[in-house]
Structure formats: C-alpha cells, structure tokens
Amino acid sequence: MVVPERVSERRLSIPNNAITGILFAIPGYFAGVWLGTLFGLNDDQNTGVILGYIFATVAFLAGVGFLNYPFERLFGWRVSPLTDPDENRGVGRFFRLSLDHKVIGLQYLVTILIMLLFGGIGAMMIRTSLLVPDSSITPSGNYISLIGLHSVMMIFITSAVIVGPFGNYLVPLMIGARRMAFPRLEALSFWVVPPAAVILAAATFWGGFPTGWTGYPPLSEQASQAMDSYIVGFALIAVALVTSAINMLATIIGLRAPGMTWTRLPMFVWGIFTTSILGLLAAPVLAAALFMLTLDRTTQTSFFLASNGGSNYLWENLFWFFGHPEVYIFILPAFGIIMEIVPHFARKPLWGYRTGVVGLFGVMLLSFFVWQHHLFVSGIAPVLRPFYMLSTELISIPTGIIFLVTLGTLWRARVWFTVPMLFCMGFLFNFLIGGVSGVYLSDVPTDVTLHGSYFSMAHFHYTIMGGEIFALMAAAYYWLPKMTGKMLSPTIGRIHFWWMFIAFNSTFFPLFIVGLLNMPRRVSSYDPALVGLNRWVTISAYFLFGSMVLFAANLIYSWFFVARPALANPWHARSLEWQVPTPVPARNFERVPLVVAGPYDYGIPNARPVADLGGVVGATGGG
User: Fold this and answer.
1) What domain range includes position 323?
2) Model confidence pTM above 0.85
3) Would 396 be classed as within a structural domain?
4) What is the tens place of the pLDDT at every residue in 41-70?
5) 63: CB partners within 8 A, 6+ apart
6) 244 contact partners, CB below 8 Å, separation of at least 6
C-alpha cells in the first residue's frame, strides 16, 4: 500500500508584486556596490556597479515572487497553481508574478509600448540635433551617447516587440494548448526586461557610453561606468531571449493539440519557431562576449585589448555572430504575421504554404553565415570577402520566396482592406525598398563606400521600422480585439496607417540620398549643403512620431472611452485562436481541441471547420 505524500496547506504569505521587487532591488544594489568596492581589483568602481546591477536584479526577481516556488517545494508547502482564476482578475494581476501566458503577453505589450515611447523620444532628440549642420544643439560627445542609448533601447524593444506580447499570448491558442510548456520560465523572460530597461537608462547618470550599440573595444574598455549599464542590460536581454526561445520551442514541439500536424501550424507559429531557434543559438554568444568584456573591465584580462595580446576583432566577430542573426530575430516573426494575416483577408488559401515555411528556415539558416559583411571595412582578410558577399546575397533568395508567397496569395484575390491588411500592404512596400537597398550593401565595393553613411542607416530602418514595426501595427489591429476584448476604432486606424506610411517614407527615403552624398552617420556635424534635406527629414520625423501618438490615442479612446466589446471572431477567420470566446477563458479550452483541417482553407468547397472544440478527453495540451 502506497501512502500518499502529505502536503502542508501553508503557502508563503509575503506580498509579491512589482513594488515589493523595487523595494528589494534598492538595498540589493547597494549591497552589490559595497561588495564590489570591497573585493574589486581596481579602483574605478566597475566591479561595484556591475555587482550592484546583478544583485538588484536578483533582489527584484525575489521581490516579485520567483523564490516562492523553490521555497514551497523545499518546505513541502502547497505549490501555487499554474493557472489560478482567482489571481487572474483585476488590474493588479499585471503588477505581480503571473503564470498565465495571456497575462504575461499583456504585461509585455504595455512594457514594450512604454519603452517604445522613450526610444522614440531619443530619436526625436537625435533628429533635432541635426537641424543645424554643426554641433551647436548637441555637443559631439553627448550626441554619440544619445545615439548609443537610442540604438540599444530600440534593439531591446525590437527583439521582444512581437515575440513578447503576441508570441506569448497567441502561440498556445493557435496550437490548441492550455498553457506554455514552462510557465515560470515564461514569466522570467518578461520580468528581466524591466530591470534591463532601467539599468540601460541608468547609463545617462554616468554620462552615457561612447560606443554606439556595437560596444567596440578599445572604447568599451576605456568607457565610464555607463558601459557597465550596457553590459548588464544587454546580458539580461540575452537571458530573456534564451528563456523565451526554450519555452516557445518546447511548447510548439510538445503541446500541440491532437491533429495539429506540422503542416497545419499557422505561419505566425512558424515565424516564432524559427526566430526561437535563432535566439537560442545566437544569444549565448552575446552573453559570452559580454562576460569576457566584463572581465577585461574588472579583473585586467585582455581578451579584446590588442596592446596586451588580445584582439578587438574577436569582439567584432562574437558581437556580429549574434548581431546579424539578431536582425532576423526581429524580422522572422514579422514575416509570420504577414503570411498569417494576408490569407484571412484575401479569403484564399496561402499560396505555397510549404514554400513559405522553407523560406523561413532558409532565412534562419543563412543568417548564421553572413555576419562578417559587417567587417568589410574593418580589416577582414580579403580572401574571406567573396564568401560573405555571396552568402549575404544568397539570403535574398529565401526572403524573396516569402515575398512571392504573399504576392501569390494576393493574386486575383478579393481583398478585404481592413486596417491590419493596410499595414500588411505597407510592410510589403517598405520591405521591398529595404531589401533592394540591402543588395547594394552586400557587395564589397559599394559597402566600403556606403557602410559609414546614412545609406546604411536608411536601409536598416526600412527593414526594421518599415518592416517589423508595420507588421507590429498589423498584429495590433488584428489581435488586440482578442487580447483585450475591445475593438480599436477602424476610422482612426486608417488615418493612422496613411499618416504613418507617408511620414515614414518621407523621413527615411531622403536618407538614402544624403548617404549617397557622403553624410556620415553617428556624427553630429555635416556638410552645410545638406541642411535642407536634413531639415525635411527632421520635420517628417516629427510627423512620424505624431502618427505613433495617434496610435496611442486610438488605444486609449477605444479601451477607456468607447470600449466597444469585440466579437469572438470579428474577422471571420478560420485559425484556432478565433474559435475561443472573447475574453479568452483562464484555461483557453474547456477540452483540448481536435484539429481536423488547416487554418487557410478559404474558398474550398465543403471545407471542414478547423477543429472539433469538443476535444479529446485526456489529450495533452498543457492541461
């Protein structure tokens, strides 16, 4: 006879929320600074600052509640349930540790929007500095620090802006699961983001870092304590990328509902799957490079100091081995969004489903073989240039395949031009320009000429802002009714699209011209002959920022003033997330559904519904 294990009904009674985390983080920071000052090998305070940031982050996580589970298991107390409906009500659930993937998705959404606001303000400050051709508005040293803060903040944002809110909220719903595979790991991937943002912002109190977002030695070795903010903040984002990637991959592989075969996965899930592989393989390389840089700054090693036997090229290779796959961590979920939304509003099956999946995997694979094109101008061995030039050009093939799959779906379609569909069209236009301009930068002769100019910067913003951010807007107008239970105003949404589309192209297309006219990036002074174009760009940038303010106004107006309830399926879409009620129940599905058809079977006579929501008793789906 087996005696069941006795479990105490006691639970930890310490209040755990963001405020508790902040109260824990403050003494944690000072404890770390004290220890670093006591045991540090030099007197420049780097050890103390880095330990202070690490201790503060750990204390913050403890205050939020991440130690509750191990203590409950250690003492045999009742473990907090994975999904507790009583703890997932009211606004307060967004300020404490939740294991509900839907709450975590909304926590990500609000946090990312706040960070996007500050990143946008930084961009406006940069453009304001360029109203005049000299450094009279912003001194050169402050300007490069401003560039660095804006760049790193935006890298933080764009690495999580789709996977964080929409991946966490929607992936379980789209594959028929009741939860994520590792809910606590999912929560951790979010709760390290606020400390990362605060630590990065703290760089301003140290005078900013002079390296831009790339952190190249020897500047990063010699910089003030602001560089420590860069190191710890970036390391926390690497932690978020790895934990999120593990969770997404485990969920998609292991918790798909019965009948959800690989060939029935929605394209958005494929986008999350491929970007998770990238994050899992690339982010640890960044973490290792940051650890080596930390040792150089605190213990007098010389991994990256050429004067002591190290090599700054080692940093460049490690950084860009992460940095260029990172670009595709941004864009692969955006590709997934576009290929997900377009069939629903074209009311046609996705043209070339398997071809689109191959395109995503092709981009993912080739992204690990292109990083040295960033070193074309920094001393790469000439014999290596042809290989990396060719590999960079080759990546346009799977990207073009994804483009053609989308255009093939639109061919002879009777398109329903909703606001999400408009942003998908904007994505296709912008990304085409970004992709074509990238072909020039992949060739060594033109890259050597244009790499340090605004041409390169315009290309990057056309692919990331013109691509990923337009896809983000499409996702917001498409899925926020399901996520929040409120419809966004379609009238304001259409105004927002046209305003943003025109302002974006008016801002960034002229930068190709000033780049061809040899205006250098990361420099606050330029040829006075270019002042007219720069003022045009700056004024356009103000209008672009205004379009984002209009989006925020649409959110506030639609959620708090009109509050028009969303239907369960306002788009009449076939995919699984639209078959559940709005708001989504705590466990997503009463029973794990039995998937019997694909999500894009529009226009097919006698097409079956996507799933039998009566489900299969006892089926696995994270329940």
Assistant:
1) 98-562
2) yes
3) yes
4) 666 788 999 999 999 999 999 999 898 888
5) 16, 20, 21, 22, 23, 24, 25
6) 160, 163, 164, 167, 168, 186, 189, 276, 279
